[in-house]
Amino acid sequence: MTAFFRKPVAGIYCLLALLSALLFNSCGKQENPQAVEIHGKTMGTTFQVKYLPLPSDDDQRPEAIGGEINAALIAFNQLVSTYIKDSRISSFNQFADTTWFPVDSTFLHILEGAREINRLSGGAMDITVGPLVNLWGFGPGSPEQRHIPEAAAIAAAKANTGMEKLEIRHDPPAVRKQIPGLYIDLSSIAKGYGVDLVGRLLEKKGYANYLVEIGGEVRTRGVNERGVVWRLGISSPEISGGLQAVIALDNFSMATSGDYMNYFEENGVRYSHLIDPVAAKPISHNLASVTVLHPSCMMADGFATAINVLGPEQGMALAERENLPIMMIIREGEGFVEKMNDAFRLIREKTEESGN
Ligand code: ADP
Ligand code: MG
Fold first, then answer.
1. What global pTM score does this model have?
2. What does the alpha-carbon distance between residue 208 and residue 182 come to, in Å, rounded to a whole number?
């Protein structure tokens, strides 16, 4: 399988803070058929799909669906993975030219989403930050041993960033670099798009009850095999296996961006894989993770990164401006505190009221 994201550095929180999509048992009697479960690997992480079969499905159907999902994800990686040397995005990144470069409509759709989040976040989420991601050791082919780069190298990499240096054309679909050194990194948004992609694939086939999860980014629709809306758990960073929150989601998505999975430490300072595009260095605030809800998993994923880069105050302000239900887990002293906005609290309370 292809590697899209690298999350090799296990920190002290690694056992604690992985977001997991959990299917909860209800007390009601089973009204629906057993859910079909498909598991696999993609984008350097794992995926899981659960769906309720249709009465017309035969025994071979789950295998066929699994095959189609795998094929769709492989094709998607071949489009947007910077970890694949001959992917479409890698070809564009290697294309040291400033003429138009043809892409397909999926590629453009993702760039449009990224551009929108870039604008709404005042530049905090920026897919052109790739040269800095790579320089700080968080890109493809980065060394296991990461170090703080030289100031001159940081300045040189920063000169090759900037969303305004990427042009998008729709007819015919193409992209253009204003400077040859521009490099696109879609890692902050692609997993979410992959989830949407698999959800649409299932819907086209008539499956209206499903859960799709790739590396912690999730989309649900309809009900689970117990006939209740799917429940998603957000893991607690403090209690191993414990849950910080449980929410019921129908036809909605949830994405989390955290700094506990991928970082290095030097002289007692923690350097995250999230780069502040203005400072040209890893973020350094006390926000451990942010979970965002949005109809589109791609947008949830991108906004989670944006809010994480912005930090607790500015990130919360963005969520309020855009009506995004969010929950943050913030480091405080030796522990953590949670902070959520009213929109998220409402969904959480509704879940609790509905029981199960
Ligand atoms: P994860 O991949 O851990 O779920 P994110 O969705 O937040 O987390 O994506 C993080 C990845 O996005 C980084 O590994 C890096 O490749 C890229 N990245 C880092 N900083 C930024 C940024 N400011 N804007 C957009 N992408 C970024
Ligand atoms: Mg993201």
1. 0.91
2. 41
